[in-house]
Amino acid sequence: MATKHSRASARIMISPAVILLLGWMLIPLSMTLYFSFLRYNLLMPGMEEFTGLTNYKYFLTDPAFFAALTNTILLVCGVLLVTVIGGVFLALLLDQPFFGQGIVRILVIAPFFVMPTVSALVWKNMFMNPVNGLFAHLFKFFGLEPFDFLAQAPLASIIGIVSWQWLPFATLILLTAFQSLDQEQLEASEMDGAPWIKRFWFIMLPHLSRAITVVILIQTIFLLSVFAEILVTTNGGPGTASTNLTYLIYMQSLLQFDVGGGSAGGVVAIILANIVAIFLMRMIGKNLDA
Amino acid sequence: MARSVSTNRKLVTTFFAWVVGLAIFFPILWTILTSFKTEAQAIADPPIFFNFHWTLENYVTVQERSNYFRHFWNSVVLSGGSTLLGLIIAIPAAWSMAFVPSRRTKDILMWMLSTKMLPPVGVLVPMYLIFRNLGLLDTQIGLVIVLTLINLPIIVWMLYTYFKEIPGEILEAARMDGATLRSEILYVLTPMAIPGIASTVLLNIILAWNEAFWTLNLTAAKAAPLTAFIASYSSPEGLFYAKLSAASTMAIAPILIMGWFSQKQLVRGLTFGAVK
After folding, report:
1. Cβ separation of A187 and B17 shorter than 8 Å?
2. By CB count within 10 A, which of A141, A191, B68, B182 is most buried?
3. What are phi and psi of B52, to 5 degrees?
4. A residues 256-275 lying closer than 8 A (beta carbon) to B
5. Residues β-bridged to residue A39
6. Measured distance CA(B110)–CA(B115) in Å, rounded
7. What confidence score (pLDDT) does residue B1 get?
8. What pLDDT shows up at residue A155?
9. How far apart are alpha carbons A208 and A203 in whole angstroms?
10. Sign of torsion, CA A188 A193 A197 A198?
11. A window 235-254, beta carbon within 8 A of B
Protein backbone atom coordinates (compact mmCIF):
# COMPACT_ATOMS: atom_id res chain seq x y z
CA MET A 1 0.00 0.00 0.00
CA ALA A 2 2.71 2.45 0.95
CA THR A 3 4.88 3.54 -1.92
CA LYS A 4 8.63 3.85 -1.74
CA HIS A 5 8.25 7.57 -1.90
CA SER A 6 6.01 7.72 1.14
CA ARG A 7 8.31 5.38 3.08
CA ALA A 8 11.20 7.74 2.59
CA SER A 9 9.17 10.77 3.59
CA ALA A 10 7.79 8.90 6.59
CA ARG A 11 11.29 8.39 7.81
CA ILE A 12 12.06 12.08 7.41
CA MET A 13 8.89 13.10 9.24
CA ILE A 14 9.54 10.93 12.23
CA SER A 15 13.17 11.89 12.63
CA PRO A 16 12.79 15.25 14.46
CA ALA A 17 10.83 13.58 17.25
CA VAL A 18 13.25 10.66 17.46
CA ILE A 19 16.38 12.80 17.38
CA LEU A 20 15.08 15.22 20.01
CA LEU A 21 14.03 12.48 22.39
CA LEU A 22 17.27 10.62 21.81
CA GLY A 23 19.21 13.75 22.70
CA TRP A 24 16.99 14.43 25.71
CA MET A 25 17.63 10.93 26.96
CA LEU A 26 21.29 10.42 26.15
CA ILE A 27 22.94 13.78 26.86
CA PRO A 28 21.79 14.45 30.45
CA LEU A 29 21.88 10.76 31.29
CA SER A 30 25.48 10.28 30.23
CA MET A 31 26.38 13.48 32.07
CA THR A 32 24.76 12.16 35.26
CA LEU A 33 26.66 8.92 34.88
CA TYR A 34 29.94 10.77 34.27
CA PHE A 35 29.47 13.19 37.21
CA SER A 36 28.65 10.31 39.53
CA PHE A 37 32.26 9.13 39.28
CA LEU A 38 33.73 12.57 40.02
CA ARG A 39 34.43 14.48 43.18
CA TYR A 40 32.72 17.64 42.03
CA ASN A 41 31.29 20.40 44.23
CA LEU A 42 30.04 23.65 42.75
CA LEU A 43 31.46 25.53 45.73
CA MET A 44 34.96 24.31 44.87
CA PRO A 45 35.27 24.86 41.11
CA GLY A 46 38.34 23.45 39.39
CA MET A 47 38.84 20.74 42.02
CA GLU A 48 37.09 17.99 40.06
CA GLU A 49 38.81 14.62 40.11
CA PHE A 50 37.94 11.04 39.33
CA THR A 51 37.01 9.11 42.45
CA GLY A 52 35.58 5.87 41.12
CA LEU A 53 32.72 4.52 43.19
CA THR A 54 33.29 6.76 46.25
CA ASN A 55 30.13 8.81 45.63
CA TYR A 56 28.04 5.65 45.47
CA LYS A 57 29.64 4.36 48.63
CA TYR A 58 28.83 7.57 50.49
CA PHE A 59 25.34 7.86 49.08
CA LEU A 60 24.35 4.25 49.75
CA THR A 61 25.83 4.12 53.28
CA ASP A 62 24.41 7.50 54.32
CA PRO A 63 21.71 6.86 56.97
CA ALA A 64 19.64 9.49 55.15
CA PHE A 65 19.56 7.23 52.08
CA PHE A 66 18.05 4.36 54.01
CA ALA A 67 15.49 6.71 55.57
CA ALA A 68 14.66 8.22 52.19
CA LEU A 69 14.31 4.80 50.58
CA THR A 70 11.96 3.66 53.36
CA ASN A 71 9.95 6.88 53.08
CA THR A 72 9.73 6.55 49.30
CA ILE A 73 8.39 3.00 49.59
CA LEU A 74 5.94 4.00 52.35
CA LEU A 75 4.76 7.00 50.37
CA VAL A 76 4.22 5.02 47.15
CA CYS A 77 2.55 2.06 48.87
CA GLY A 78 0.45 4.24 51.16
CA VAL A 79 -0.93 6.34 48.34
CA LEU A 80 -1.52 3.26 46.17
CA LEU A 81 -3.43 1.54 48.95
CA VAL A 82 -5.70 4.54 49.57
CA THR A 83 -6.31 5.39 45.92
CA VAL A 84 -6.87 1.85 44.63
CA ILE A 85 -9.24 0.78 47.40
CA GLY A 86 -10.93 4.18 47.48
CA GLY A 87 -11.06 4.23 43.69
CA VAL A 88 -12.76 0.83 43.42
CA PHE A 89 -15.47 1.86 45.86
CA LEU A 90 -15.94 5.29 44.31
CA ALA A 91 -16.17 3.80 40.82
CA LEU A 92 -18.66 1.25 42.11
CA LEU A 93 -20.75 4.04 43.62
CA LEU A 94 -20.57 6.39 40.64
CA ASP A 95 -21.44 3.60 38.22
CA GLN A 96 -24.90 3.26 39.82
CA PRO A 97 -27.72 5.34 38.41
CA PHE A 98 -28.45 8.43 40.54
CA PHE A 99 -29.56 12.03 40.22
CA GLY A 100 -26.87 14.52 39.18
CA GLN A 101 -24.35 11.94 37.94
CA GLY A 102 -22.56 14.43 35.70
CA ILE A 103 -22.09 17.01 38.44
CA VAL A 104 -20.84 14.51 41.03
CA ARG A 105 -18.34 13.13 38.52
CA ILE A 106 -17.02 16.65 37.95
CA LEU A 107 -16.70 17.20 41.72
CA VAL A 108 -14.83 13.94 42.20
CA ILE A 109 -12.23 14.42 39.45
CA ALA A 110 -11.55 18.08 40.31
CA PRO A 111 -8.57 17.48 42.67
CA PHE A 112 -6.60 15.98 39.79
CA PHE A 113 -6.44 19.39 38.10
CA VAL A 114 -5.17 21.25 41.15
CA MET A 115 -1.45 21.97 40.83
CA PRO A 116 0.69 20.19 43.47
CA THR A 117 1.90 23.39 45.11
CA VAL A 118 -1.64 24.69 45.59
CA SER A 119 -3.00 21.49 47.07
CA ALA A 120 -0.02 21.15 49.38
CA LEU A 121 -0.34 24.75 50.64
CA VAL A 122 -4.09 24.61 51.07
CA TRP A 123 -3.93 21.37 53.04
CA LYS A 124 -0.95 22.54 55.08
CA ASN A 125 -2.35 25.89 56.14
CA MET A 126 -6.11 25.80 55.94
CA PHE A 127 -6.67 22.24 57.13
CA MET A 128 -3.66 20.88 59.01
CA ASN A 129 -2.48 24.02 60.78
CA PRO A 130 -2.64 23.25 64.54
CA VAL A 131 -4.01 26.71 65.45
CA ASN A 132 -6.25 27.98 62.69
CA GLY A 133 -6.75 24.93 60.47
CA LEU A 134 -10.19 23.45 59.98
CA PHE A 135 -9.08 20.16 61.52
CA ALA A 136 -7.97 22.04 64.64
CA HIS A 137 -11.40 23.69 64.87
CA LEU A 138 -13.02 20.30 64.44
CA PHE A 139 -10.86 18.71 67.15
CA LYS A 140 -11.61 21.53 69.54
CA PHE A 141 -15.32 21.19 68.79
CA PHE A 142 -15.16 17.59 69.98
CA GLY A 143 -13.10 18.61 72.99
CA LEU A 144 -9.86 17.08 71.73
CA GLU A 145 -6.34 18.48 71.72
CA PRO A 146 -5.44 19.96 68.31
CA PHE A 147 -3.01 17.73 66.44
CA ASP A 148 -0.01 19.18 64.60
CA PHE A 149 -0.23 16.91 61.57
CA LEU A 150 2.87 17.94 59.66
CA ALA A 151 5.12 18.00 62.75
CA GLN A 152 3.89 14.83 64.44
CA ALA A 153 2.95 12.66 61.48
CA PRO A 154 4.66 14.32 58.51
CA LEU A 155 4.82 11.34 56.18
CA ALA A 156 1.25 10.22 56.87
CA SER A 157 0.04 13.78 56.26
CA ILE A 158 1.85 13.93 52.93
CA ILE A 159 0.42 10.53 52.00
CA GLY A 160 -3.00 12.01 52.71
CA ILE A 161 -2.41 15.07 50.54
CA VAL A 162 -0.99 13.08 47.63
CA SER A 163 -3.79 10.51 47.88
CA TRP A 164 -6.35 13.29 47.56
CA GLN A 165 -4.66 14.38 44.35
CA TRP A 166 -4.50 10.89 42.83
CA LEU A 167 -7.82 9.42 43.96
CA PRO A 168 -9.61 11.01 40.96
CA PHE A 169 -7.19 9.40 38.53
CA ALA A 170 -7.78 5.92 39.93
CA THR A 171 -11.54 6.50 40.11
CA LEU A 172 -11.78 7.75 36.54
CA ILE A 173 -9.87 4.81 35.08
CA LEU A 174 -11.69 2.21 37.15
CA LEU A 175 -15.01 3.82 36.28
CA THR A 176 -14.15 3.55 32.59
CA ALA A 177 -13.31 -0.11 33.12
CA PHE A 178 -16.59 -0.72 34.99
CA GLN A 179 -18.55 0.70 32.10
CA SER A 180 -17.24 -2.00 29.78
CA LEU A 181 -18.41 -4.72 32.15
CA ASP A 182 -20.78 -7.24 30.56
CA GLN A 183 -24.15 -6.40 32.13
CA GLU A 184 -25.78 -9.62 30.95
CA GLN A 185 -23.26 -11.72 32.79
CA LEU A 186 -24.00 -9.77 35.95
CA GLU A 187 -27.75 -10.14 35.50
CA ALA A 188 -27.42 -13.85 34.86
CA SER A 189 -25.47 -14.34 38.07
CA GLU A 190 -27.98 -12.20 39.94
CA MET A 191 -30.82 -14.40 38.70
CA ASP A 192 -28.89 -17.49 39.70
CA GLY A 193 -28.98 -16.08 43.21
CA ALA A 194 -25.36 -15.04 43.65
CA PRO A 195 -25.15 -12.57 46.55
CA TRP A 196 -23.67 -9.13 45.91
CA ILE A 197 -20.33 -9.88 47.55
CA LYS A 198 -19.83 -12.92 45.32
CA ARG A 199 -20.73 -10.98 42.21
CA PHE A 200 -18.22 -8.33 43.25
CA TRP A 201 -15.46 -10.81 44.04
CA PHE A 202 -15.86 -13.23 41.12
CA ILE A 203 -17.08 -11.02 38.29
CA MET A 204 -16.36 -7.34 38.89
CA LEU A 205 -12.93 -7.56 40.50
CA PRO A 206 -11.42 -9.93 37.89
CA HIS A 207 -12.78 -7.62 35.19
CA LEU A 208 -11.07 -4.68 36.89
CA SER A 209 -7.73 -6.43 37.43
CA ARG A 210 -6.22 -5.09 34.22
CA ALA A 211 -7.28 -1.50 34.94
CA ILE A 212 -6.03 -1.79 38.52
CA THR A 213 -2.64 -2.94 37.27
CA VAL A 214 -2.45 0.03 34.92
CA VAL A 215 -3.40 2.40 37.74
CA ILE A 216 -0.74 0.93 40.03
CA LEU A 217 2.04 1.09 37.46
CA ILE A 218 1.34 4.58 36.16
CA GLN A 219 0.85 6.05 39.61
CA THR A 220 4.06 4.42 40.83
CA ILE A 221 6.02 6.16 38.08
CA PHE A 222 4.65 9.53 39.18
CA LEU A 223 4.71 8.82 42.93
CA LEU A 224 8.41 7.94 42.89
CA SER A 225 8.98 11.56 41.85
CA VAL A 226 6.80 13.37 44.40
CA PHE A 227 8.62 16.63 45.06
CA ALA A 228 6.58 19.83 45.25
CA GLU A 229 4.31 18.52 48.02
CA ILE A 230 7.33 17.87 50.25
CA LEU A 231 9.11 21.10 49.36
CA VAL A 232 6.08 23.20 50.26
CA THR A 233 4.91 21.39 53.39
CA THR A 234 7.80 19.98 55.44
CA ASN A 235 11.04 20.51 53.50
CA GLY A 236 11.67 16.83 54.15
CA GLY A 237 11.61 17.22 57.92
CA PRO A 238 11.54 17.06 60.82
CA GLY A 239 14.99 15.51 60.35
CA THR A 240 14.53 13.11 57.48
CA ALA A 241 11.05 12.01 58.57
CA SER A 242 9.44 12.99 55.27
CA THR A 243 12.42 13.03 52.89
CA ASN A 244 11.95 10.80 49.87
CA LEU A 245 14.63 9.85 47.36
CA THR A 246 13.77 12.67 44.97
CA TYR A 247 13.94 15.25 47.73
CA LEU A 248 17.20 13.83 49.13
CA ILE A 249 18.90 14.09 45.75
CA TYR A 250 17.53 17.60 45.28
CA MET A 251 19.01 18.65 48.64
CA GLN A 252 22.36 17.10 47.88
CA SER A 253 22.65 18.63 44.41
CA LEU A 254 21.02 22.05 44.60
CA LEU A 255 21.30 22.91 48.30
CA GLN A 256 24.70 21.40 49.10
CA PHE A 257 26.05 21.83 45.55
CA ASP A 258 27.46 18.29 45.67
CA VAL A 259 27.26 17.44 41.96
CA GLY A 260 29.05 14.09 42.30
CA GLY A 261 26.97 12.82 45.21
CA GLY A 262 23.70 14.08 43.72
CA SER A 263 24.50 12.37 40.43
CA ALA A 264 25.24 9.06 42.14
CA GLY A 265 21.83 9.39 43.82
CA GLY A 266 20.28 10.17 40.44
CA VAL A 267 21.65 6.96 38.97
CA VAL A 268 20.22 4.99 41.90
CA ALA A 269 16.81 6.64 41.38
CA ILE A 270 16.87 5.82 37.67
CA ILE A 271 17.62 2.16 38.38
CA LEU A 272 14.75 1.94 40.88
CA ALA A 273 12.29 3.59 38.49
CA ASN A 274 13.35 1.27 35.69
CA ILE A 275 12.39 -1.80 37.68
CA VAL A 276 8.79 -0.50 37.74
CA ALA A 277 8.94 0.76 34.17
CA ILE A 278 9.79 -2.66 32.74
CA PHE A 279 6.53 -4.10 34.06
CA LEU A 280 4.49 -1.14 32.85
CA MET A 281 6.00 -1.27 29.38
CA ARG A 282 5.14 -4.96 29.06
CA MET A 283 1.51 -4.25 29.93
CA ILE A 284 1.20 -1.44 27.41
CA GLY A 285 3.17 -3.28 24.74
CA LYS A 286 0.80 -6.25 24.87
CA ASN A 287 -2.10 -3.94 24.12
CA LEU A 288 -0.43 -2.25 21.17
CA ASP A 289 -1.24 -3.61 17.73
CA ALA A 290 1.11 -1.66 15.52
CA MET B 1 -28.72 -0.16 30.66
CA ALA B 2 -31.80 -2.31 30.50
CA ARG B 3 -32.06 -2.91 34.20
CA SER B 4 -34.74 -0.91 35.93
CA VAL B 5 -33.79 0.42 39.32
CA SER B 6 -36.25 1.19 42.07
CA THR B 7 -36.62 4.87 42.86
CA ASN B 8 -35.87 4.17 46.49
CA ARG B 9 -32.51 2.67 45.73
CA LYS B 10 -31.73 5.49 43.34
CA LEU B 11 -32.44 8.04 46.07
CA VAL B 12 -30.13 6.28 48.53
CA THR B 13 -27.35 6.14 45.93
CA THR B 14 -27.93 9.80 45.14
CA PHE B 15 -27.48 10.71 48.79
CA PHE B 16 -24.24 8.78 49.24
CA ALA B 17 -22.76 9.86 45.90
CA TRP B 18 -23.38 13.53 46.67
CA VAL B 19 -21.95 13.25 50.19
CA VAL B 20 -18.76 11.61 48.90
CA GLY B 21 -18.51 13.97 45.92
CA LEU B 22 -18.87 17.06 48.08
CA ALA B 23 -16.37 15.73 50.62
CA ILE B 24 -13.74 15.23 47.94
CA PHE B 25 -14.45 18.62 46.41
CA PHE B 26 -14.62 20.38 49.76
CA PRO B 27 -10.98 21.61 49.99
CA ILE B 28 -11.41 23.36 46.64
CA LEU B 29 -14.80 24.80 47.60
CA TRP B 30 -13.41 25.99 50.93
CA THR B 31 -10.48 27.68 49.19
CA ILE B 32 -12.79 29.49 46.80
CA LEU B 33 -15.10 30.61 49.63
CA THR B 34 -12.21 31.77 51.80
CA SER B 35 -10.81 33.87 48.98
CA PHE B 36 -13.85 36.16 49.30
CA LYS B 37 -13.55 36.63 53.08
CA THR B 38 -11.59 39.10 55.15
CA GLU B 39 -8.53 37.70 56.96
CA ALA B 40 -10.40 37.75 60.29
CA GLN B 41 -13.36 35.86 58.87
CA ALA B 42 -11.01 33.37 57.21
CA ILE B 43 -9.69 32.07 60.53
CA ALA B 44 -12.92 32.54 62.53
CA ASP B 45 -13.78 29.78 64.98
CA PRO B 46 -16.37 28.33 64.44
CA PRO B 47 -15.74 28.56 60.68
CA ILE B 48 -18.08 30.74 58.63
CA PHE B 49 -19.53 29.09 55.54
CA PHE B 50 -21.69 31.47 53.55
CA ASN B 51 -22.95 34.29 55.76
CA PHE B 52 -19.96 36.58 55.47
CA HIS B 53 -19.45 39.88 53.75
CA TRP B 54 -18.16 38.97 50.26
CA THR B 55 -15.17 41.03 49.18
CA LEU B 56 -12.78 41.11 46.21
CA GLU B 57 -10.11 42.86 48.24
CA ASN B 58 -7.81 39.79 48.41
CA TYR B 59 -7.64 39.47 44.65
CA VAL B 60 -6.59 43.10 44.33
CA THR B 61 -3.95 42.70 47.04
CA VAL B 62 -2.48 39.56 45.51
CA GLN B 63 -2.15 41.24 42.13
CA GLU B 64 -0.61 44.38 43.61
CA ARG B 65 1.80 42.66 45.93
CA SER B 66 3.11 39.82 43.82
CA ASN B 67 2.12 40.66 40.29
CA TYR B 68 -0.14 37.69 39.63
CA PHE B 69 -0.62 38.49 35.96
CA ARG B 70 3.05 38.18 35.13
CA HIS B 71 3.14 34.65 36.55
CA PHE B 72 -0.16 33.86 34.91
CA TRP B 73 1.29 35.01 31.60
CA ASN B 74 4.39 32.84 32.19
CA SER B 75 2.14 29.84 32.75
CA VAL B 76 0.25 30.61 29.56
CA VAL B 77 3.47 30.96 27.55
CA LEU B 78 5.03 27.81 29.00
CA SER B 79 2.01 25.54 28.58
CA GLY B 80 0.87 27.06 25.28
CA GLY B 81 4.36 27.25 23.81
CA SER B 82 5.38 23.74 24.78
CA THR B 83 2.11 22.30 23.48
CA LEU B 84 2.40 24.11 20.13
CA LEU B 85 6.03 23.11 19.68
CA GLY B 86 5.16 19.56 20.68
CA LEU B 87 2.36 19.41 18.09
CA ILE B 88 4.61 20.65 15.30
CA ILE B 89 7.12 17.89 16.05
CA ALA B 90 4.57 15.19 16.88
CA ILE B 91 2.01 15.46 14.05
CA PRO B 92 4.43 14.37 11.29
CA ALA B 93 5.83 11.62 13.51
CA ALA B 94 2.38 10.30 14.42
CA TRP B 95 1.31 10.51 10.77
CA SER B 96 4.18 8.39 9.58
CA MET B 97 3.70 5.77 12.30
CA ALA B 98 -0.06 5.53 11.79
CA PHE B 99 -0.17 5.47 7.99
CA VAL B 100 3.22 4.15 6.90
CA PRO B 101 3.96 1.66 9.66
CA SER B 102 7.17 -0.29 9.43
CA ARG B 103 8.54 -3.22 11.37
CA ARG B 104 10.08 -0.87 13.88
CA THR B 105 7.04 1.33 14.56
CA LYS B 106 6.06 -0.55 17.67
CA ASP B 107 9.61 -0.43 19.02
CA ILE B 108 9.85 3.29 18.39
CA LEU B 109 6.55 3.93 20.17
CA MET B 110 7.62 1.86 23.15
CA TRP B 111 11.01 3.51 23.27
CA MET B 112 9.42 6.99 23.22
CA LEU B 113 7.24 5.94 26.11
CA SER B 114 10.27 4.70 28.03
CA THR B 115 11.78 8.21 28.03
CA LYS B 116 8.75 9.28 30.04
CA MET B 117 9.69 6.78 32.75
CA LEU B 118 12.99 8.49 33.45
CA PRO B 119 12.71 10.08 36.92
CA PRO B 120 13.35 13.80 36.48
CA VAL B 121 15.58 13.93 39.54
CA GLY B 122 17.97 11.54 37.78
CA VAL B 123 18.95 14.28 35.35
CA LEU B 124 18.48 17.27 37.66
CA VAL B 125 22.20 18.01 38.04
CA PRO B 126 23.16 17.99 34.35
CA MET B 127 20.04 19.94 33.37
CA TYR B 128 20.80 22.57 35.99
CA LEU B 129 24.41 22.89 34.78
CA ILE B 130 23.43 22.97 31.10
CA PHE B 131 20.87 25.67 31.83
CA ARG B 132 23.37 27.65 33.89
CA ASN B 133 26.09 27.49 31.26
CA LEU B 134 23.77 28.40 28.39
CA GLY B 135 22.17 31.23 30.37
CA LEU B 136 18.78 29.51 30.22
CA LEU B 137 18.06 29.53 33.96
CA ASP B 138 14.88 31.48 34.71
CA THR B 139 14.01 32.01 31.03
CA GLN B 140 10.77 31.15 29.28
CA ILE B 141 12.48 29.60 26.26
CA GLY B 142 14.48 27.16 28.38
CA LEU B 143 11.42 25.89 30.19
CA VAL B 144 9.36 25.67 27.00
CA ILE B 145 12.03 23.32 25.61
CA VAL B 146 12.10 21.13 28.72
CA LEU B 147 8.31 20.94 28.98
CA THR B 148 8.07 20.09 25.27
CA LEU B 149 10.55 17.24 25.67
CA ILE B 150 8.93 15.74 28.76
CA ASN B 151 5.46 15.78 27.20
CA LEU B 152 6.43 14.87 23.62
CA PRO B 153 5.98 11.10 24.17
CA ILE B 154 2.43 11.66 25.42
CA ILE B 155 1.57 13.92 22.46
CA VAL B 156 2.94 11.43 19.93
CA TRP B 157 1.11 8.55 21.59
CA MET B 158 -2.24 10.29 21.80
CA LEU B 159 -2.07 11.55 18.22
CA TYR B 160 -1.02 8.10 17.05
CA THR B 161 -4.05 6.43 18.64
CA TYR B 162 -6.38 9.05 17.13
CA PHE B 163 -4.78 8.89 13.66
CA LYS B 164 -5.07 5.09 13.69
CA GLU B 165 -8.84 5.48 13.72
CA ILE B 166 -8.89 7.48 10.48
CA PRO B 167 -9.22 5.20 7.43
CA GLY B 168 -6.04 5.37 5.34
CA GLU B 169 -8.08 5.07 2.12
CA ILE B 170 -9.18 8.68 2.41
CA LEU B 171 -5.59 9.86 2.49
CA GLU B 172 -4.79 7.59 -0.44
CA ALA B 173 -7.64 9.05 -2.44
CA ALA B 174 -6.24 12.53 -1.82
CA ARG B 175 -2.84 11.31 -2.96
CA MET B 176 -4.38 9.85 -6.15
CA ASP B 177 -5.93 13.21 -6.87
CA GLY B 178 -2.43 14.64 -6.86
CA ALA B 179 -2.23 16.13 -3.37
CA THR B 180 1.34 16.63 -2.15
CA LEU B 181 2.37 15.19 1.17
CA ARG B 182 2.24 18.61 2.76
CA SER B 183 -1.29 19.34 1.60
CA GLU B 184 -2.33 15.77 2.40
CA ILE B 185 -1.39 16.33 6.05
CA LEU B 186 -2.45 19.94 6.25
CA TYR B 187 -5.77 19.86 4.38
CA VAL B 188 -6.98 16.26 4.58
CA LEU B 189 -5.64 14.64 7.73
CA THR B 190 -5.59 17.57 10.14
CA PRO B 191 -9.23 18.65 9.65
CA MET B 192 -10.39 15.05 10.15
CA ALA B 193 -8.26 14.67 13.25
CA ILE B 194 -9.34 17.97 14.84
CA PRO B 195 -11.23 16.36 17.74
CA GLY B 196 -8.27 14.14 18.55
CA ILE B 197 -5.80 16.98 18.23
CA ALA B 198 -8.00 19.18 20.41
CA SER B 199 -8.08 16.70 23.27
CA THR B 200 -4.34 16.15 22.95
CA VAL B 201 -3.85 19.90 23.23
CA LEU B 202 -6.13 20.13 26.23
CA LEU B 203 -4.42 17.32 28.14
CA ASN B 204 -1.01 18.74 27.40
CA ILE B 205 -1.86 22.22 28.54
CA ILE B 206 -3.11 20.72 31.80
CA LEU B 207 0.04 18.66 32.31
CA ALA B 208 2.35 21.56 31.47
CA TRP B 209 0.39 24.03 33.60
CA ASN B 210 0.67 21.82 36.67
CA GLU B 211 4.25 20.61 36.13
CA ALA B 212 6.03 21.35 39.39
CA PHE B 213 9.49 19.81 39.29
CA TRP B 214 11.32 21.60 36.51
CA THR B 215 9.39 24.83 36.94
CA LEU B 216 10.38 24.96 40.62
CA ASN B 217 14.02 24.05 40.06
CA LEU B 218 14.83 26.04 36.93
CA THR B 219 13.09 29.35 37.61
CA ALA B 220 13.57 32.11 40.14
CA ALA B 221 11.49 35.22 39.60
CA LYS B 222 11.36 36.33 35.96
CA ALA B 223 10.05 33.20 34.27
CA ALA B 224 8.33 31.65 37.28
CA PRO B 225 4.89 30.25 36.37
CA LEU B 226 2.00 29.91 38.80
CA THR B 227 3.33 26.69 40.37
CA ALA B 228 6.42 28.55 41.59
CA PHE B 229 4.43 31.68 42.41
CA ILE B 230 2.22 29.72 44.79
CA ALA B 231 5.23 27.98 46.33
CA SER B 232 6.49 31.43 47.36
CA TYR B 233 3.39 31.69 49.57
CA SER B 234 4.77 28.82 51.62
CA SER B 235 5.77 31.18 54.42
CA PRO B 236 4.95 33.52 55.98
CA GLU B 237 2.23 34.73 53.60
CA GLY B 238 0.65 31.29 53.80
CA LEU B 239 -0.73 32.30 57.17
CA PHE B 240 -2.88 34.93 55.52
CA TYR B 241 -5.55 32.47 54.49
CA ALA B 242 -7.75 34.80 52.50
CA LYS B 243 -4.88 35.99 50.31
CA LEU B 244 -3.48 32.48 49.96
CA SER B 245 -6.94 31.35 48.87
CA ALA B 246 -7.31 34.14 46.34
CA ALA B 247 -3.91 33.33 44.82
CA SER B 248 -4.73 29.59 44.79
CA THR B 249 -8.12 30.12 43.21
CA MET B 250 -6.61 32.20 40.45
CA ALA B 251 -3.91 29.59 39.85
CA ILE B 252 -6.26 26.62 39.49
CA ALA B 253 -9.42 28.14 37.99
CA PRO B 254 -8.38 28.16 34.30
CA ILE B 255 -7.15 24.58 34.35
CA LEU B 256 -10.05 23.29 36.43
CA ILE B 257 -12.45 24.48 33.75
CA MET B 258 -10.36 23.03 30.92
CA GLY B 259 -9.99 19.78 32.82
CA TRP B 260 -13.71 19.31 33.15
CA PHE B 261 -14.08 19.62 29.40
CA SER B 262 -11.36 17.08 28.73
CA GLN B 263 -12.37 14.42 31.26
CA LYS B 264 -13.43 11.90 28.61
CA GLN B 265 -10.09 11.98 26.80
CA LEU B 266 -8.14 11.99 30.01
CA VAL B 267 -8.27 8.24 30.57
CA ARG B 268 -7.03 7.46 27.10
CA GLY B 269 -4.23 10.00 27.21
CA LEU B 270 -2.97 9.13 30.65
CA THR B 271 -2.92 5.37 30.18
CA PHE B 272 -1.29 5.51 26.72
CA GLY B 273 -4.30 3.72 25.28
CA ALA B 274 -4.08 0.82 27.74
CA VAL B 275 -7.58 1.67 29.01
CA LYS B 276 -10.15 3.15 26.64
Report:
1. no
2. B68
3. -120, 170
4. 259, 262-263, 265-267, 269-270, 272-274
5. A49
6. 9
7. 44
8. 92
9. 9
10. negative
11. 245-246, 249-250, 253-254
Task: Looking at the complex, report in whole angstroms how far the Cα of residue B30 sits from the nearest Cα belonging to chain A.
Answer: 9
- Residue ranges of the domains in chain B? 7-59, 67-232
Chain-centroid distance of CA A77 in Å reads 10
Task: Report which residue type is found at B213.
Answer: F
Closest by Cβ to A13, choosing from B46, B96, B121: B96
pTM confidence score: 0.87
**Which regions in chain B score pLDDT beneath 50?**
1-2
Query: Which DSSP state fits B122?
Result: G
Give me the sign of the Cα torsion angle B8, B14, B20, B22. negative
Instruction: Please give the CATH number for the structural domain made up of B67-232.
Output: 1.10.3720.10
3-state secondary structure A190-210: HHCCCCHHHHHHHHHHHHHHH
Altogether, the residues listed in chain A come to a count of 290
A143 dihedral zone (left: phi>0; alpha: psi -120 to 50; beta): left
* Least confident window among A78-92, A165-179, B218-232: B218-232
C-alpha–C-alpha distance, residues A7 and A31, integer Å: 35
User: What residue ranges define each of the domains in chain A, with the CATH number in brackets?
Assistant: 53-286 (1.10.3720.10)
The C-alpha atoms of residue A157 and residue B26 are separated, in whole angstroms, by: 17
Q: What is the pLDDT of residue B237?
A: 59
What's the number of CA atoms in the CB half-sphere (13 Å) around residue B113? 27
CA proximity to B218, closest of B227, A8, A281, A111: B227
What integer pLDDT is reported at residue B275 of this predicted model? 66
User: Given A227, A253, A267, which is nearest B213 (Cβ)?
Assistant: A227
Instruction: Tell me the per-residue pLDDT of B1-52, one tens digit each, with 9 for 90 and over.
Output: 445 667 888 888 899 999 999 999 999 999 999 889 888 787 777 777 777 7
Contact state of B119 with A273 under an 8 Å Cβ cutoff: yes
What are the backbone angles phi and psi of residue A115, rounded to the nearest 5°?
Answer: -65, 145
State ipTM: 0.85
The helix (run of H) or strand (run of E) holding residue A38 is: strand A38-39
pLDDT at A43 over 80: no
Provide the shortest C-alpha distance from residue A112 to chain B (in Å). Answer: 9
- Measured distance CA(A86)–CA(A174) in Å, rounded: 11
Sequence-ordered list of residues with C-beta below 8 angstroms from that of A33, at least 6 positions apart, any chain: A263, A267
What is the pLDDT of chain A when averaged over all its residues? 85
CA–CA separation, A113 vs A174, rounded Å?
18
d(CA B108, CA B32): 45
The CB density around residue A43, as the number of other CB atoms within 10 Å, is 8
A287 shares contact with chain B (CB less than 8 Å)? yes
